[in-house]
Amino acid sequence: MELIFIIICILAMISASIFDIRYREIPDIHWFIIGATGVVAMLWSHIELPWILMTFGCFLYMLEMLTDLIPEGRFLLLWYIATTSLFAAAAIINRDTSMTAISIPVCICLFRAFYQFGILNGGADAKALMSLSMAFPIYPVGYSLLTTVEGSIQALFPISILFLATVITMASALPIAMSNIIKKKDLDMRNLLLVRKRISDVRTTHCWIRQDIVDGELTYVKDADESALDRLKAHGLEYVYVSPAIPFIVPITLSLVFCIFVIDPIMLPFML
Questions:
Q1: How far apart are CA 144 and CA 141, in angstroms?
Q2: Cβ count within 10 A of residue 110
Q3: Separation of alpha carbons 152 and 263, rounded Å
Q4: Which residues lie closer than 8 Å to 85 by C-beta, 6 or more apart?
Q5: Buried b / exposed e across 57-95, counting CB within 10 Å, b at 16+?
Q6: Greatest alpha-carbon span in the chain
Q7: What CA–CA distance (Å, rounded) separates 267 from 147?
Q8: Which of 10, 75, 8 is nearest to 253 (CA)?
Q9: What's the rounded Cα separation, in Å, for the pair 269 and 272?
Q10: What distances in angstroms separate CA 193 from CA 181, 187, 265, one per listed residue?
Q11: Helices 98-116 and 49-66: angle between axes, nearest 10 degrees
């Protein structure tokens, strides 16, 4: 039955990836399906108080994640503290649940904080990782080609998914770096991983604008809005450096499949 739950989550992530590539917007139903699958999986063979507490906690996390009912600020913080306390109670009642009871709130709170502080740029990226934290709080044992059963029992598995997704995203920038090195056009460490595009072409593509006019000077920035293009044109420039906006849901999906069916990269040091 666990394999069915895994397939449902992977299919939901594949659908989310397609939406991210085509529209850059993903319906929240994907995250509900993944989170609900995790809840059903928890209760499938554990109709006991600790698991019921964690199920209710997951419901409260999803309520905040998928609706606008919970206001920002102190109330949101109290909501997360109260929700997390349900998992703490579950771990105290039954220590056998401790890995799941620790992994879910730690990962969800971590990913929520990453979004809050801009480490995860997209709300869909954070929602995907938060919902996967409910579906896969620990490594699903028995499906990996290269990891032993003993080495696969690991809490905080969603962090492995984020780690590998980040590596995949960074690796996708290598062709850009190689192209820039070969062309050697205005090359320095600031634009090694950036693409030089005509300003007139930027509006029709999905990318992060990395240059702007600040105090009358051309400056590299973390992310500029489209108004920067007008300022650059007014400054007499025809080209701007940008970063391709790679849909991060795609690397997350690839990472999920690879970690489950091939190997969890974080477990590699323990296998040597």
A1: 7
A2: 18
A3: 9
A4: none
A5: bbebbbebbbeeeeeeeeeeeebbeebbebbeebbeeee
A6: 68
A7: 8
A8: 10
A9: 6
A10: 10, 10, 25
A11: 10
DSSP SS3 for 134? helix
Residues paired with residue 216 on neighbouring β-strands, in sequence order: none
For residue 139, the SS3 value is coil
Threshold 0.90, pTM exceeds:
no
Q: Contacts from 255-258 at CB under 8 Å and sequence distance 24+?
A: 255/160, 255/161, 255/162, 255/163, 255/164, 255/165, 255/168, 256/9, 256/10, 256/13, 256/132, 256/136, 256/161, 257/10, 258/164
Splitting the chain (272 residues) into consecutive groups of 10 residues, what average pLDDT does each group show?
93 97 92 96 87 95 93 91 96 90 96 92 93 94 71 76 94 83 73 84 82 88 84 89 88 96 79 60
E-strand ranges in 149-247 read 195-198, 207-214, 217-224, 239-244
Tokens standing for 35? 């989170």
User: Residue 173 burial by CB count (10 A; 0-12/13-18/19+): exposed, middle or buried?
Assistant: middle
